[in-house]
Amino acid sequence: MQHLSIVPFSSGCGALIDNLQLATCTDTEVDLLRQASSEFGVLFFRNQVLPPHEHLRFGRRFGNVVVNKFFQHLTEYPEIAEVRKEKQQETNIGGGWHTDHSYDDIPAMGSILVARQVPSRGGATHFANLYAAYDDLSDGLKKVLHSLTAIHSNDHLYGESGYYAKTDLANQLQGQDSVSEATHPVVIVHPRSGRKALYVNPAHTIGITGWSQEESRALLNYLYEHAAQSKYTCQFNWETDSVALWDNRCTWHFAQNDYHGEARLMHRLTIEGTRLVGV
Ligand SMILES: O=C(O)CCC(=O)C(=O)O
Ligand SMILES: [Fe+2]
Q: How confident is the model at residue 176 (pLDDT cuts 50, 70, 90)?
């Protein structure tokens, strides 16, 4: 077997794998990818021959597929969600820093995103490394964070009077009545790597359990500013047939909305995770 070439993508986050076709990789390589995604947070691939049925086949080899409640899906492949922005649309999906599905009791392990149509420029996705952001906090703050849990929700985004309902994405989304909340430790021990990672995110975390809104905002804003520093992040510029595979337990991401007047279409598979435990 050829060794995987895993090249760190930036000093802070991610790795590029350039000698592998996901559609034809071996079981050992799938294991290596699982390992690498939990270490680097996000893996990038170029020039993949991965039509929807191969996307789904690869996703199922990687883990159990879970269906996102809010996005539209491909008619023939209901497991595959469409992340679509039309030419004339202004709002995009995932335009602010977030972790997918942190509002679920058992949040998704990760996602496998395939670029089907990309704008001529712009439309990058940014990722942040929440291991590194955690590691650099002081021992004093780490100790405080270890004792905390936070509440995550999707109501303010996907609910009937949530953010997206007021945008031009509204009729592209569904599931307004399946909003949910979940509580998770603020610092988790990653189920695969055993490393500690910050597990709060600007889009879904609505407060620290037992703290007032003001107190929660002050702490969360500090952590958000800290983790969004460029030393922890990377920017992936898509080409058609590029793939990103990320681990939600140790990363954030957001899709940059800077290509108005052009369309962009991504296909996303979401992979089931496990219950998260704290320190
Ligand atoms: O379109 C993108 O680059 C990412 C969108 C997003 O947040 C997601 O698919 O989870
Ligand atoms: Fe996302």
A: low
The bound ligand whose nearest atom lies closest to the alpha carbon of 254 is 1
Rounded to an integer, the average pLDDT of 24-39 is: 96
* Nearest CA residue ID for atom 2, ligand 1: 255
Pocket test for ligand 1, best of 73, 268, 270, 271 (most atoms within 8 A of CB): 268
Residue 142 DSSP class: H
> Alpha helix (H) ranges present in 162-260?
213-227
What pLDDT, on a 0 to 100 scale, did the predictor assign at position 163? 74
Tell me the pTM.
0.95
Residues flanking ligand 1, CB < 6 Å: 83, 93-94, 100, 111, 113, 125, 253, 255, 266, 268
The β-bridge partners of 233 are 128
**Domains located in the chain, CATH noted:** 6-271 (3.60.130.10)
Q: From CA 68, how far away is CA 223, in angstroms rounded?
A: 27
How would residue 175 be classed by pLDDT, with cut points 50, 70 and 90? Answer: low
